[in-house]
Write a structure and sequence with these properties.
By secondary structure, the protein is of the alpha/beta class. Helices cover 38% and strands 15% of the residues. The radius of gyration is 21 Å and the shape is elongated. It starts with 6 loop residues before the first helix and ends in a 12-residue tail after the last strand.
Protein backbone atom coordinates (compact mmCIF):
# COMPACT_ATOMS: atom_id res chain seq x y z
CA UNK A 1 0.00 0.00 0.00
CA UNK A 2 1.79 3.07 -1.22
CA UNK A 3 1.03 6.68 -0.32
CA UNK A 4 -1.72 6.87 -2.94
CA UNK A 5 -3.41 3.69 -1.75
CA UNK A 6 -7.10 3.97 -0.87
CA UNK A 7 -7.35 3.26 2.84
CA UNK A 8 -11.11 3.06 2.46
CA UNK A 9 -10.77 0.21 -0.05
CA UNK A 10 -8.20 -1.56 2.14
CA UNK A 11 -10.55 -1.38 5.12
CA UNK A 12 -13.42 -2.78 3.08
CA UNK A 13 -11.34 -5.62 1.63
CA UNK A 14 -9.78 -6.49 5.00
CA UNK A 15 -13.11 -6.48 6.84
CA UNK A 16 -14.61 -8.68 4.14
CA UNK A 17 -11.76 -11.20 4.37
CA UNK A 18 -11.82 -11.19 8.19
CA UNK A 19 -15.58 -11.88 8.13
CA UNK A 20 -15.34 -14.59 5.46
CA UNK A 21 -12.61 -16.48 7.32
CA UNK A 22 -14.12 -15.72 10.75
CA UNK A 23 -10.69 -14.54 11.88
CA UNK A 24 -10.56 -13.91 15.64
CA UNK A 25 -7.18 -13.22 17.24
CA UNK A 26 -8.38 -12.02 20.63
CA UNK A 27 -6.08 -13.03 23.50
CA UNK A 28 -3.25 -13.87 21.10
CA UNK A 29 0.09 -12.13 20.55
CA UNK A 30 1.24 -12.02 16.92
CA UNK A 31 4.79 -11.52 15.63
CA UNK A 32 4.96 -10.47 12.00
CA UNK A 33 6.69 -7.91 9.77
CA UNK A 34 6.27 -4.23 9.03
CA UNK A 35 6.59 -4.24 5.25
CA UNK A 36 6.02 -1.86 2.36
CA UNK A 37 3.34 -1.84 -0.31
CA UNK A 38 0.46 -4.27 0.00
CA UNK A 39 2.48 -6.36 2.47
CA UNK A 40 1.89 -3.70 5.10
CA UNK A 41 -1.50 -5.34 5.53
CA UNK A 42 -0.50 -8.21 7.85
CA UNK A 43 -0.16 -6.42 11.22
CA UNK A 44 -3.15 -4.23 10.37
CA UNK A 45 -5.36 -7.25 9.66
CA UNK A 46 -4.21 -8.97 12.85
CA UNK A 47 -5.10 -5.90 14.93
CA UNK A 48 -8.43 -5.44 13.12
CA UNK A 49 -9.21 -9.08 13.97
CA UNK A 50 -8.92 -8.42 17.70
CA UNK A 51 -5.23 -9.03 18.42
CA UNK A 52 -4.30 -6.61 21.20
CA UNK A 53 -0.53 -7.03 20.89
CA UNK A 54 0.97 -7.18 17.39
CA UNK A 55 4.74 -6.83 17.08
CA UNK A 56 5.78 -5.82 13.56
CA UNK A 57 9.49 -6.07 12.69
CA UNK A 58 10.83 -3.36 10.37
CA UNK A 59 14.09 -3.59 8.41
CA UNK A 60 15.75 -1.64 5.63
CA UNK A 61 15.13 -3.18 2.20
CA UNK A 62 15.26 -2.22 -1.49
CA UNK A 63 11.62 -1.18 -1.09
CA UNK A 64 12.22 1.40 1.62
CA UNK A 65 14.02 2.22 4.85
CA UNK A 66 12.82 0.73 8.11
CA UNK A 67 12.03 4.20 9.47
CA UNK A 68 9.96 5.14 6.44
CA UNK A 69 8.01 1.87 6.50
CA UNK A 70 7.45 2.19 10.26
CA UNK A 71 6.13 5.73 9.85
CA UNK A 72 3.75 4.62 7.12
CA UNK A 73 2.46 1.65 9.14
CA UNK A 74 1.92 3.79 12.23
CA UNK A 75 0.03 6.29 10.12
CA UNK A 76 -2.25 3.63 8.67
CA UNK A 77 -2.83 2.13 12.10
CA UNK A 78 -3.72 5.57 13.42
CA UNK A 79 -6.27 6.17 10.68
CA UNK A 80 -7.81 2.77 11.45
CA UNK A 81 -7.87 3.53 15.21
CA UNK A 82 -5.73 0.50 16.08
CA UNK A 83 -2.43 2.23 16.96
CA UNK A 84 -2.54 0.93 20.52
CA UNK A 85 -2.49 -2.65 19.25
CA UNK A 86 0.59 -2.50 17.00
CA UNK A 87 4.19 -2.08 18.11
CA UNK A 88 6.71 -1.47 15.35
CA UNK A 89 10.22 -2.58 16.31
CA UNK A 90 13.67 -2.40 14.75
CA UNK A 91 14.89 -5.20 17.04
CA UNK A 92 16.01 -8.56 15.66
CA UNK A 93 12.86 -10.72 15.58
CA UNK A 94 14.26 -13.39 17.91
CA UNK A 95 14.07 -10.87 20.76
CA UNK A 96 10.28 -11.07 20.56
CA UNK A 97 9.92 -14.80 19.94
CA UNK A 98 9.30 -15.70 23.60
CA UNK A 99 6.14 -13.58 23.85
CA UNK A 100 4.50 -14.58 20.56
CA UNK A 101 1.62 -17.02 20.36
CA UNK A 102 1.59 -16.85 16.59
CA UNK A 103 4.55 -16.18 14.28
CA UNK A 104 4.25 -15.56 10.54
CA UNK A 105 6.96 -16.57 8.08
CA UNK A 106 6.92 -13.15 6.40
CA UNK A 107 10.14 -11.59 5.14
CA UNK A 108 11.57 -9.56 8.02
CA UNK A 109 10.77 -12.26 10.59
CA UNK A 110 12.77 -14.85 8.66
CA UNK A 111 14.78 -16.94 8.99
CA UNK A 112 12.86 -18.97 11.54
CA UNK A 113 15.97 -20.93 12.42
CA UNK A 114 16.81 -23.23 15.32
CA UNK A 115 17.86 -20.32 17.53
CA UNK A 116 14.60 -18.46 16.92
CA UNK A 117 12.45 -21.55 17.46
CA UNK A 118 14.28 -22.45 20.68
CA UNK A 119 13.07 -19.14 22.12
CA UNK A 120 9.39 -19.73 21.28
CA UNK A 121 7.09 -20.50 24.18
CA UNK A 122 5.07 -23.64 24.75
CA UNK A 123 1.76 -23.54 22.92
CA UNK A 124 2.91 -21.18 20.15
CA UNK A 125 2.65 -21.86 16.42
CA UNK A 126 3.99 -20.81 13.02
CA UNK A 127 1.81 -20.05 10.02
CA UNK A 128 3.12 -19.93 6.45
CA UNK A 129 1.60 -17.26 4.22
CA UNK A 130 1.88 -19.57 1.22
CA UNK A 131 1.71 -23.23 0.32
CA UNK A 132 4.45 -25.32 1.97
CA UNK A 133 6.18 -26.25 -1.30
CA UNK A 134 6.89 -22.56 -1.95
CA UNK A 135 8.95 -22.17 1.24
CA UNK A 136 12.74 -22.35 0.99
CA UNK A 137 14.34 -24.72 3.50
CA UNK A 138 16.60 -21.95 4.75
CA UNK A 139 13.57 -19.87 5.80
CA UNK A 140 11.95 -22.28 8.28
CA UNK A 141 13.74 -25.02 10.23
CA UNK A 142 10.95 -27.60 10.30
CA UNK A 143 13.11 -30.10 12.18
CA UNK A 144 13.67 -27.60 15.00
CA UNK A 145 9.90 -27.00 15.10
CA UNK A 146 9.24 -30.71 15.51
CA UNK A 147 11.81 -31.02 18.29
CA UNK A 148 10.38 -27.99 20.10
CA UNK A 149 6.77 -29.04 19.60
CA UNK A 150 5.84 -25.98 17.54
CA UNK A 151 3.17 -26.84 14.94
CA UNK A 152 3.58 -25.42 11.42
CA UNK A 153 1.11 -25.35 8.54
CA UNK A 154 0.89 -23.69 5.16
CA UNK A 155 -2.05 -21.89 3.57
CA UNK A 156 -3.95 -23.58 0.74
CA UNK A 157 -3.95 -21.00 -2.02
CA UNK A 158 -6.52 -22.86 -4.10
CA UNK A 159 -9.09 -22.58 -1.32
CA UNK A 160 -12.36 -21.33 -2.87
CA UNK A 161 -12.15 -18.00 -1.01
CA UNK A 162 -8.59 -17.40 -2.25
CA UNK A 163 -7.83 -18.78 -5.73
CA UNK A 164 -4.48 -17.01 -5.37
CA UNK A 165 -2.91 -18.65 -8.39
CA UNK A 166 -5.56 -17.18 -10.66
CA UNK A 167 -3.86 -13.86 -10.02
CA UNK A 168 -0.59 -15.32 -11.38
CA UNK A 169 -2.31 -15.64 -14.74
CA UNK A 170 -3.42 -12.00 -14.51
CA UNK A 171 0.14 -11.06 -13.55
CA UNK A 172 1.49 -12.61 -16.74
CA UNK A 173 -1.06 -10.69 -18.80
CA UNK A 174 -0.08 -7.40 -17.18
CA UNK A 175 3.64 -7.97 -17.74
CA UNK A 176 3.04 -8.93 -21.37
CA UNK A 177 1.08 -5.72 -21.92
CA UNK A 178 3.92 -3.74 -20.36
CA UNK A 179 6.27 -5.47 -22.81
CA UNK A 180 3.95 -4.30 -25.61
CA UNK A 181 2.92 -7.86 -26.43
CA UNK A 182 -0.79 -7.78 -27.23
CA UNK A 183 -1.54 -11.39 -26.10
CA UNK A 184 -4.48 -11.79 -28.48
CA UNK A 185 -3.20 -13.76 -31.49
CA UNK A 186 0.37 -13.48 -30.19
CA UNK A 187 2.73 -16.45 -30.38
CA UNK A 188 4.00 -17.15 -26.88
CA UNK A 189 6.37 -19.78 -25.50
CA UNK A 190 5.40 -20.64 -21.93
CA UNK A 191 8.09 -22.33 -19.80
CA UNK A 192 6.65 -23.50 -16.52
CA UNK A 193 5.31 -26.49 -14.62
CA UNK A 194 2.72 -26.86 -11.87
CA UNK A 195 -0.01 -24.42 -10.94
CA UNK A 196 1.99 -21.38 -12.09
CA UNK A 197 2.22 -22.83 -15.59
CA UNK A 198 -1.37 -24.09 -15.54
CA UNK A 199 -2.91 -20.75 -14.57
CA UNK A 200 -0.82 -18.69 -16.97
CA UNK A 201 -1.54 -21.13 -19.78
CA UNK A 202 -5.26 -20.78 -19.08
CA UNK A 203 -5.09 -16.98 -18.98
CA UNK A 204 -3.17 -16.82 -22.26
CA UNK A 205 -5.46 -19.23 -24.10
CA UNK A 206 -8.59 -17.52 -22.77
CA UNK A 207 -7.29 -14.26 -24.22
CA UNK A 208 -6.60 -15.61 -27.66
CA UNK A 209 -2.85 -16.30 -27.50
CA UNK A 210 -1.20 -19.08 -29.51
CA UNK A 211 0.80 -20.90 -26.84
CA UNK A 212 3.60 -23.44 -26.99
CA UNK A 213 4.09 -24.69 -23.44
CA UNK A 214 7.20 -26.51 -22.32
CA UNK A 215 7.48 -28.19 -18.93
CA UNK A 216 10.93 -28.21 -17.26
CA UNK A 217 9.90 -31.24 -15.20
CA UNK A 218 8.55 -33.48 -17.98
CA UNK A 219 9.96 -34.17 -21.42
CA UNK A 220 12.06 -31.03 -21.40
CA UNK A 221 14.72 -32.19 -23.88
CA UNK A 222 12.14 -33.52 -26.29
CA UNK A 223 10.26 -30.23 -26.25
CA UNK A 224 13.27 -27.94 -26.61
CA UNK A 225 13.67 -28.62 -30.31
CA UNK A 226 10.02 -27.82 -30.98
CA UNK A 227 10.28 -24.66 -28.88
CA UNK A 228 13.44 -23.63 -30.75
CA UNK A 229 11.56 -23.90 -34.05
CA UNK A 230 8.61 -22.00 -32.57
CA UNK A 231 11.01 -19.23 -31.50
CA UNK A 232 11.37 -18.19 -35.14
CA UNK A 233 7.80 -16.79 -34.99
CA UNK A 234 7.43 -16.23 -31.25
CA UNK A 235 6.52 -12.81 -29.91
CA UNK A 236 7.64 -13.53 -26.35
CA UNK A 237 8.76 -16.18 -23.86
CA UNK A 238 7.04 -16.31 -20.47
CA UNK A 239 9.11 -18.02 -17.76
CA UNK A 240 7.17 -19.13 -14.68
CA UNK A 241 9.00 -22.16 -13.28
CA UNK A 242 8.67 -22.40 -9.50
CA UNK A 243 9.85 -25.97 -8.85
CA UNK A 244 12.97 -26.81 -10.86
CA UNK A 245 16.17 -25.03 -9.82
CA UNK A 246 18.06 -25.85 -13.03
CA UNK A 247 18.31 -23.26 -15.80
CA UNK A 248 15.11 -22.76 -17.76
CA UNK A 249 16.77 -20.38 -20.21
CA UNK A 250 20.37 -20.97 -21.24
CA UNK A 251 23.04 -23.44 -20.19
CA UNK A 252 22.87 -27.19 -20.83
CA UNK A 253 19.40 -27.64 -19.35
CA UNK A 254 17.51 -24.62 -20.65
CA UNK A 255 16.00 -23.30 -23.84
CA UNK A 256 18.58 -21.99 -26.30
CA UNK A 257 19.24 -18.30 -25.85
CA UNK A 258 20.80 -18.01 -29.30
CA UNK A 259 17.49 -18.77 -30.99
CA UNK A 260 15.76 -16.12 -28.87
CA UNK A 261 18.45 -13.56 -29.61
CA UNK A 262 18.43 -14.35 -33.34
CA UNK A 263 14.68 -13.74 -33.51
CA UNK A 264 14.70 -10.80 -31.04
CA UNK A 265 12.27 -12.56 -28.68
CA UNK A 266 11.85 -10.79 -25.30
CA UNK A 267 11.40 -12.65 -22.02
CA UNK A 268 8.66 -11.98 -19.47
CA UNK A 269 9.88 -13.43 -16.20
CA UNK A 270 7.82 -14.36 -13.15
CA UNK A 271 10.06 -17.04 -11.65
CA UNK A 272 12.67 -19.56 -12.76
CA UNK A 273 16.44 -19.81 -13.19
CA UNK A 274 17.97 -18.07 -16.19
CA UNK A 275 21.49 -17.38 -17.45
CA UNK A 276 21.44 -13.61 -16.91
CA UNK A 277 25.01 -13.02 -18.09
CA UNK A 278 24.42 -14.71 -21.43
CA UNK A 279 21.13 -12.86 -21.83
CA UNK A 280 22.97 -9.58 -21.32
CA UNK A 281 25.65 -10.55 -23.78
CA UNK A 282 23.05 -11.47 -26.39
CA UNK A 283 20.95 -8.34 -25.69
CA UNK A 284 17.84 -10.33 -24.81
CA UNK A 285 15.28 -8.05 -23.22
CA UNK A 286 13.85 -9.11 -19.84
CA UNK A 287 10.62 -7.75 -18.37
CA UNK A 288 10.82 -6.78 -15.52
CA UNK A 289 14.56 -6.02 -15.51
CA UNK A 290 15.05 -7.08 -11.86
CA UNK A 291 17.21 -10.18 -11.27
CA UNK A 292 16.14 -12.79 -8.73
CA UNK A 293 17.32 -16.15 -7.44
CA UNK A 294 15.61 -19.41 -8.45
CA UNK A 295 12.38 -19.89 -6.51
CA UNK A 296 11.88 -16.14 -6.07
CA UNK A 297 9.28 -14.20 -8.04
CA UNK A 298 10.42 -11.11 -9.94
CA UNK A 299 7.15 -9.49 -8.93
CA UNK A 300 4.40 -10.99 -6.80
CA UNK A 301 0.64 -10.83 -7.18
CA UNK A 302 0.80 -7.60 -5.16
CA UNK A 303 1.92 -5.99 -8.43
CA UNK A 304 -1.73 -6.21 -9.49
CA UNK A 305 -3.10 -4.56 -6.36
CA UNK A 306 -3.59 -5.29 -2.65
CA UNK A 307 -6.51 -7.76 -2.75
CA UNK A 308 -4.54 -10.99 -3.38
CA UNK A 309 -2.22 -10.23 -0.45
CA UNK A 310 -5.01 -9.14 1.88
CA UNK A 311 -6.97 -12.33 1.23
CA UNK A 312 -3.95 -14.62 1.45
CA UNK A 313 -2.57 -13.12 4.65
CA UNK A 314 -5.98 -13.14 6.30
CA UNK A 315 -6.25 -16.82 5.42
CA UNK A 316 -2.74 -17.44 6.76
CA UNK A 317 -3.60 -15.75 10.03
CA UNK A 318 -6.72 -17.95 10.25
CA UNK A 319 -4.54 -21.04 9.90
CA UNK A 320 -2.38 -19.71 12.73
CA UNK A 321 -5.42 -18.90 14.88
CA UNK A 322 -6.66 -22.49 14.68
CA UNK A 323 -3.18 -23.87 15.41
CA UNK A 324 -2.90 -21.77 18.57
CA UNK A 325 -6.42 -22.67 19.65
CA UNK A 326 -5.62 -26.32 19.03
CA UNK A 327 -2.49 -26.10 21.18
CA UNK A 328 -4.43 -24.41 23.98
CA UNK A 329 -7.15 -27.04 23.79
CA UNK A 330 -5.01 -30.17 23.50
CA UNK A 331 -1.38 -29.26 24.19
CA UNK A 332 -0.49 -31.66 21.38
CA UNK A 333 1.07 -30.34 18.12
CA UNK A 334 -0.32 -33.20 16.02
CA UNK A 335 -3.84 -32.71 17.35
CA UNK A 336 -3.51 -28.94 16.85
CA UNK A 337 -2.56 -29.55 13.21
CA UNK A 338 -5.61 -31.77 12.79
CA UNK A 339 -7.87 -29.07 14.23
CA UNK A 340 -6.40 -26.41 11.93
CA UNK A 341 -6.71 -28.63 8.86
CA UNK A 342 -10.38 -29.19 9.70
CA UNK A 343 -11.31 -25.60 10.51
CA UNK A 344 -9.14 -23.34 8.33
CA UNK A 345 -7.67 -23.09 4.80
CA UNK A 346 -4.58 -24.98 6.03
CA UNK A 347 -2.23 -27.18 4.04
CA UNK A 348 -0.01 -29.86 5.56
CA UNK A 349 3.75 -29.59 5.13
CA UNK A 350 4.17 -32.91 3.39
CA UNK A 351 2.59 -34.20 0.25
CA UNK A 352 3.61 -31.80 -2.55
CA UNK A 353 1.75 -29.06 -4.40
CA UNK A 354 -1.34 -31.01 -5.58
CA UNK A 355 -2.22 -32.45 -2.15
CA UNK A 356 -4.76 -31.17 0.35
CA UNK A 357 -6.37 -28.85 -2.21
CA UNK A 358 -9.74 -27.33 -1.44
CA UNK A 359 -11.70 -25.97 -4.35
Amino acid sequence: MNDTFSLRRFKRLAESAIADFKLDLKKMNVLTEAASGAFACTPLIAAMAGCEHVVAVAKDSPYGTAKKVAKRLRGLAGELNISNRIKVTFDPPHKHAKNADLVTNTGFVRPLDADFISRMKTGSAITLMCEPWEVRHSDVDVGACERKGVPVLGTCETHKRLCTFRYVGMLALRLLMEAEIEVFRSNIILAGSGVFGDEIHRALKNNGAIVKRINPLHGWKKEMGVARDFAAKADCVVVCEHHARSLVLGGKTGLSLKSLAKNEVPVVHISGAMDYESMDRLNIRKIPEKRVAPGVMTVTTAYLGPKPVIDLHTAGLKVGEELVKGMRLTGDPEKAVGIALAHSPAMALRGGPPSNRRS
